[in-house]
């Protein structure tokens, strides 16, 4: 199962997220749940960096793990894309509840 955690600051703005694990929906290379969660997450990270010029405290991606935490000064301008990612992953979770779970901290 992919476990997604969205982290919030004191003003209830998303300050970062992590994805851990594998969806185990299909065999390696054919897992549509894993591919959609990964593609959307990496796409948002790239858009934040390249289109919004957002800086990151932490930005990591390796097999079974993606994390991005926004620098405090850039949190406000990152909200549209981070909320878009959250909504997208929530939709995937609704369709595949055994394969992806969303948490908030």
From TrEMBL:
Belongs to the Prp family. GO terms for molecular function: cysteine-type peptidase activity. Keywords: Hydrolase, Protease, Ribosome biogenesis, Thiol protease. The keyword Protease applies. CDD domains: Prp-like. Pfam families: Peptidase_Prp (PF04327). PANTHER family: HYPOTHETICAL RIBOSOME-ASSOCIATED PROTEIN (PTHR39178), RIBOSOMAL-PROCESSING CYSTEINE PROTEASE PRP (PTHR39178:SF1). This is Ribosomal processing cysteine protease Prp. GO terms for biological process: proteolysis; ribosome biogenesis. Coiled coil: none annotated. It comes from Peptostreptococcus stomatis DSM 17678.
């Amino acid at each position: 199962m992919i476990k997604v955690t969205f982290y919030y600051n004191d003003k209830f703005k998303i300050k970062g997220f992590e994805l851990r694990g594998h969806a185990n929906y299909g065999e390696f290379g054919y897992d549509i749940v894993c591919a959609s969660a990964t593609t959307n997450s990496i796409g948002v990270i790239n858009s934040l960096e390249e289109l919004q010029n957002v800086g990151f405290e932490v930005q990591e991606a390796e097999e079974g793990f993606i994390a991005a935490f926004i620098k405090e000064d850039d949190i406000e301008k990152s909200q549209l894309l981070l909320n878009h990612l959250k909504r997208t992953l929530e939709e995937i979770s609704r369709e595949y509840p055994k394969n992806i779970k969303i948490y908030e901290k």
